[in-house]
Design brief:
Length: 78
């Protein structure tokens, strides 16, 4: 998509999400909404040196969604 003009990029982006719409007969694309929700969560949660969505954890979260379980370990000084 990077090699396309801006107009062509917008068209390609629309076709990309249209193919992934689970209910094309409705006006809302549920997968696109979920993608943006995951992007927003990754940006807020995995913020580090750069934006959270660019981190490894952020990219995994965006691709696969929330984990089934979370294990938490208390930090220690040693």
């Amino acid at each position: 998509m990077r090699n396309l003009t801006e107009d062509r990029q917008a068209e390609a982006w629309q076709r990309f999400w249209d193919r992934r719409d689970p209910t094309p007969e409705t006006p809302v694309n549920e997968n696109l909404i979920e993608f943006y929700r995951r992007m927003r969560h990754a940006t807020r949660t995995f913020q580090g040196i750069g934006p959270g969505w660019r981190s490894d954890m952020g990219r995994i979260y965006i691709r696969y969604g929330p984990p089934d379980q979370v294990e938490s370990q208390p930090g220690s000084a040693s």
